[in-house]
């Protein structure tokens, strides 16, 4: 058993047609992870729905729906409910797009994902009035027991 402050590492491989966000949340639930985060990911997808960075001119966050073959260049974030993940994808010409994952990350060939957990910590989210989003809060597992 890992001690406080230590790191546990898990690896999983998702297959063609699986949805990454849903699969990761099921994995976290099944393993009962309290402070899960993405260490690394490689793979490819055929679909993605992303929220791009805030556009001050329109005061909105643009949502894009991608269809095609994309390589996962990077996947980062925390997997507590609700997950906060960002992804960077490259197309057939190597052009990249990245943003906040909303849904529909459908695996093309594979997604090899390594998940870490900070033992002794629990990640939760609380609404932050200054950002308008539920933001990360960390606590000791002994504080939440």
Written account of the structure:
- Helix content is 11%, strand content 64%.
- The relative contact order is 0.29.
- It has 2 helices and 7 strands.
- The chain has helices spanning 20-31, 141-144, and strands at 7-14, 36-55, 60-78, 84-90, 96-118, 121-128, 133-140.
- It has one domain (8-119): 2-Layer Sandwich (60s Ribosomal Protein L30, Chain: A), CATH 3.30.1330.80.
- The mean pLDDT is 90.
- The longest helix has 12 residues, at 20-31.
- The chain is mainly beta and 145 residues long.
- Strands 1, 2, 3, 4 and 5 form a 5-stranded antiparallel sheet that branches. Strands 6-7 form a two-stranded antiparallel sheet.
Structural class determined from secondary elements:
mainly beta
Q: State the CATH superfamily name.
A: Hypothetical protein, similar to alpha- acetolactate decarboxylase, domain 2
Head-to-tail CA distance between termini = 18 Å
What's the average pLDDT? 90
Largest sheet: 5 strands, antiparallel
| Number of self-contained structural domains | 1
Quickly name the level 1 CATH class. Answer: Alpha Beta
- Based on CA inertia axes, which overall geometry fits? flat
Stated plainly, the CATH topology is called: 60s Ribosomal Protein L30, Chain: A
Uncertain regions spanning at least 5 consecutive residues: none
Under the CATH scheme, the architecture is: 2-Layer Sandwich
